[in-house]
Specification:
With 79 residues, the protein is mostly helical. The chain has one domain. The protein contains 3 helices and no strands. The radius of gyration is 18 Å and the shape is elongated.
Length: 79
């Protein structure tokens, strides 16, 4: 019984951590989605690209790399 409680605590802790991390990247995922949509609909492509300068593009790339590493780390949540 004690082992099950320990597993439940560990699972709860991991879920809390996962939810926190997901919340951290929520806005970024929404932004990436807008770029994906603009890529599919050429009418929006020019409008979206006008709002991105070199600094913003670098920030997006850096955050994308960070998110990719985070996604790869999700394997630790396998119980």
């Amino acid at each position: 019984m004690r082992a099950r409680k320990e597993i439940d605590r560990k699972e709860c802790s991991l879920k809390t951590e996962l939810n926190r991390d997901m919340a951290k990247y929520k806005d970024f995922f929404a932004e990436l989605l807008s770029y994906y949509i603009s890529g599919r609909y050429p009418v929006y492509k020019q409008k979206i690209s006008e709002g991105i300068d070199a600094d913003r593009a670098t920030k997006i790339l850096t955050t994308t790399e960070e998110v990719f590493l985070w996604l790869r780390s999700l394997s630790r949540y396998k119980l």
